[in-house]
């Protein structure tokens, strides 16, 4: 079976590596250079003390794929470019999306593919360089079918024990819960420039996160608030020393997922005419931080 | 005429220096050491290229003063200690308060003094060491009578042209407007760790400041919003390169005026049952920053 993965970031590389032991994997990269490096040197995963190198195909993505299963592992803000292309050129029986946020869901009805799945990645992964990814936290990937047959994706269960998949019935709840985690942790850690754990060890930060959480939970009319809030606290504790991806992006002066995460929340609030003062305030502060980064460069 | 000044910080020292040319000035300090230094070396003001040294009396404050006019120039958070003492020990015909915030106003009815004035300082001043203050921005001191006769304070108009006073009729509007300026500029610059000017040069920061401003203006039922907002923007422009006192306090791990400024706003909002989500969120973030500072030390 041929597996294609669009995106040579941390999530794309991690997924490529774990499937490459059993399947014929092609990574579609944005840059020619990364594709060449991957073909030449292979793809290395660091997990604990272990370091393994995997053979993968790689080529720059030119709006065309020809595989059995296609994983789309680009950031939300790069997705629009891909979805703007002729969908029929993305030849694949099945497609799985690995994005944070929910911006991609509205594009799904326009896709011609028979089998479409959505997933959220709960692994810690850090791209070290173009051919190396560090698996910093072994978690799982939750997934759900949006269209088509669940059985099409049964191959997911053939990978390494360190890269498990877990099926969940309701894709919307799955995405919203992941969004809630990202909303609570990412912009705040990036603004305050603190590791995840500090959001729960420092009572005032915890309070601010809780205020934000309840505002967003109201916007999405979340019912099981207590359970999701506990999940967020657990994530902060389990990844206490981690610097969130948004914090790392801000520090490196890179584009962030702010629009896909907090921008999406504000859009939904506006649509539903629900006030979102804290989300809008935090969004503006983070936009300013991004602008500072751009001005400094 | 004998003038007493409680407080050896930037505002206290600046006030002492400019009155010392015409009057017999005593600075009441918190620390014995500062009083000794002031007696030995005098009080130096740096203003532009000019450096002048003034002779002043100084002694540690031990709950007692004996002067004609008393300026109270301690931070809001130190005021409680002073106002807890036997008020009759603060011997003075007239008292002038030089605080940010409005927390002190509720204590005034308990004071035995015949003439009480309130003032807000619009100078830039930076304490360099125990005997040196830099007059970084020449502005003015607005003042108003809370009780007693305006004429008692006519001596204010005898000082240097670089230390002018301006009478305003309505003390409440004066204090609230100064509070609005402090609320808009201080916590945000301290949180973002940016100089004042960036709050207007960076559009998203300006937007966040405006959101906060409107929330607080609603809490205080401010009518002339446009005028005050323009004043805030002017202050940001005129002090563009300055780091606000709260930012400097946070950087130095010192206590801040957060409670006197934003804490006061939240109290008023709670009393009036008006929502204050942005103020409460920003307050929690800044409390966390303070806690970080304390933990690091």
From TrEMBL, chains A, B:
Database matches in InterPro entries: 6-PGluconate_DH-like_C_sf, 6PGD_dom2, ApbA, Ketopantoate_reductase, KPA_reductase, KPR_N, NAD(P)-bd_dom_sf
Source superkingdom: Bacteria
Boundaries of every Ketopantoate reductase N-terminal domain copy: 3-147
GO CC aspect terms: cytoplasm
Coiled coil ranges: none
Record field: catalytic activity: (R)-pantoate + NADP(+) = 2-dehydropantoate + NADPH + H(+)
Keywords: NADP, Oxidoreductase, Pantothenate biosynthesis
EC number: 1.1.1.169
Name of a matching Pfam family: ApbA_C
Involved pathway(s): Cofactor biosynthesis; (R)-pantothenate biosynthesis; (R)-pantoate from 3-methyl-2-oxobutanoate: step 2/2
Limits of the Ketopantoate reductase C-terminal domain: 170-290
Gene Ontology BP term (one): pantothenate biosynthetic process
Gene Ontology terms for molecular function: 2-dehydropantoate 2-reductase activity; NADP binding
NCBIfam families referenced in this protein's UniProt entry, alphabetically: apbA_panE, PRK06522.2-4
Family membership noted in the UniProt record: Belongs to the ketopantoate reductase family.
Function according to Swiss-Prot or TrEMBL: Catalyzes the NADPH-dependent reduction of ketopantoate into pantoic acid.
Protein name as annotated: 2-dehydropantoate 2-reductase
Species the sequence originates in: Anoxybacillus kestanbolensis
């Amino acid at each position: 079976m041929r597996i294609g993965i669009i995106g040579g970031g941390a999530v794309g590389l991690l997924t490529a590596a774990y499937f490459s032991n059993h399947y014929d994997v092609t990574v579609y990269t944005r840059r020619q250079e990364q594709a060449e490096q991957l073909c030449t040197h292979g793809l290395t995963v660091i997990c604990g003390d272990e370091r393994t190198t995997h053979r993968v195909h790689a080529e720059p993505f030119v709006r065309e794929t020809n595989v059995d299963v296609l994983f789309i592992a680009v950031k939300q803000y790069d997705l629009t470019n891909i979805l703007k292309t002729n969908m029929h050129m993305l030849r694949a029986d099945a497609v799985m999306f690995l994005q944070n946020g929910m911006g991609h869901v509205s594009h799904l009805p326009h896709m011609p593919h028979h089998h479409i799945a959505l997933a959220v990645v709960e692994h810690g992964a850090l791209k070290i360089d173009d051919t190396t990814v560090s698996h910093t936290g072994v978690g799982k990937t939750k997934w759900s079918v949006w269209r088509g047959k669940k059985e099409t994706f049964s191959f997911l269960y053939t990978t390494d024990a360190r890269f498990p998949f877990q099926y969940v019935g309701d894709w919307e709840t799955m995405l919203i819960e992941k969004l809630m985690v990202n909303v609570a942790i990412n912009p705040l850690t990036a603004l305050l420039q603190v590791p995840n754990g500090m959001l729960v060890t420092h009572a005032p930060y915890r309070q601010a996160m809780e205020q934000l959480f309840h505002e967003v939970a109201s916007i999405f009319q979340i019912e099981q608030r207590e359970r999701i809030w506990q999940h967020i606290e657990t994530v902060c504790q389990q990844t206490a020393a981690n610097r969130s991806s948004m914090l790392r992006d801000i520090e490196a002066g890179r584009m962030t997922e702010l629009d896909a995460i907090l921008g999406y929340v504000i859009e939904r609030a506006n649509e539903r005419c629900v006030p979102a003062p804290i989300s809008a305030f935090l969004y503006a502060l983070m936009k300013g931080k991004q602008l500072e980064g751009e001005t400094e460069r």
